[in-house]
Amino acid sequence: MPRLKISFVFAPLLVGILISSAWGLSLDSVLLKLDQNYYYPQKQGLKSLSVRVQWEQLDVVSGSGKFLRNPDFNFIWKGGSQLGRFELAEGQEHFSEDRVQELSLHISPFSEPIIPLTLQQKFSSFAGKVHATKKNKFVVGLTQVSSDQEYKLLVDAKEWVVRKLRFKQSRSPQYIEGEFSYLKLEGKPAISETRTRFEVDEGEYLEVTRYTYRKSKGIWWVHRIDQTLKQDDHILQRYVIKLSDFKPVLL
Known about the structure:
- By secondary structure, the chain is mostly beta strands.
- It contains 5 helices and 13 strands.
- Strands 1, 2, 3, 4, 5, 6, 7, 8, 9, 10, 11, 12 and 13 form a 13-stranded antiparallel β-sheet that branches.
- It is globular, with a radius of gyration of 19 Å.
- The protein starts with 18 loop residues before the first helix and ends with a strand.
């Protein structure tokens, strides 16, 4: 699954009856079935992974249309850990500690698209209910007792994927909405694009993230991530992340 900072615009939810009584589905069984349907690299016999990450950003200040090369990072993931981590690649020790921390903060959200959390991992501390809506669709509502976070997932019960998501919190941005598009890897859905909409200080923003995949050593990996943030039609930020030199350790 892509990063769940996004949420999606969809028609008002019908209050409907609980799926657990209507279709015999509980929250746990819905999340389990979704996880069984999605393509997860770590479920292909992966024990650990190291990847070289090349990272560029558009020079929006000059308007030149050129991309500026950021320092390379290595992405490290080990089985049993929920999310991988980024560390500065060798040969770039000349960067200051403050600069490395700044860069790490910007690149860290891209950890989950490489080795995504399962939905069961993502929502392990959430309580929720499943509500019936239209034919072949239902809504999963999730809340976390220890925080003010609230999710609503619109699930396509025909394809068994999350089509839309809405995220709510007390701090800005308070409402985030988005939408998922998919492609198939080994017959299983994987995210090909996310579109995220949110407001900050009355400004409306759209973030579009596209993923391309490449197969190596029997596993499909995210090979490239293109992310563009716009306000109206003005590009505020664009990242291009390219992954190479995959070094998986298999079980």
